[in-house]
Amino acid sequence: MRAGCHYNIAALPPPLAAAQVVPFALLVPFVGSAVSSIVFGERFGPLRLAGMLTVIGGIAVLVLAKRPQVLPKTA
């Protein structure tokens, strides 16, 4: 490392669990479809739009669902 160049590890955000990150990774195809629709003027039929909304609704349920509380083990 060069002098004066350092990383503040304490300032990094805490690591996220995979269960918190994966639902957002599932949105990549929909973001790509939206961009192609805007940039290239691509049009989608009603069946494809209904399928997209169904999948996005399922992802919303995954993200917004309350997770059961894990009780600590008592010895």
Written account of the structure:
Helices cover 53% and strands 0% of the residues. By secondary structure, it is mainly α. The chain has a domain at 19-63.
Secondary structure tally, helices: 3
Estimate the strand proportion: under 5%
Portion in helices: 40-55%
Question: What is the 3D shape?
Answer: flat
Main beta sheet strand tally, sense and closure: none
Determine the mean pLDDT.
81
The radius of gyration over CA amounts to: 20 Å
Summarize it.
53% of the residues lie in helices and 0% in strands. The chain has 75 residues and is mainly α.
Question: What tags apply to this protein structure?
Answer:
single chain, 75 residues, mainly alpha
Chain-wise SSE layout:
Elements: H1 18-25, H2 28-40, H3 46-64
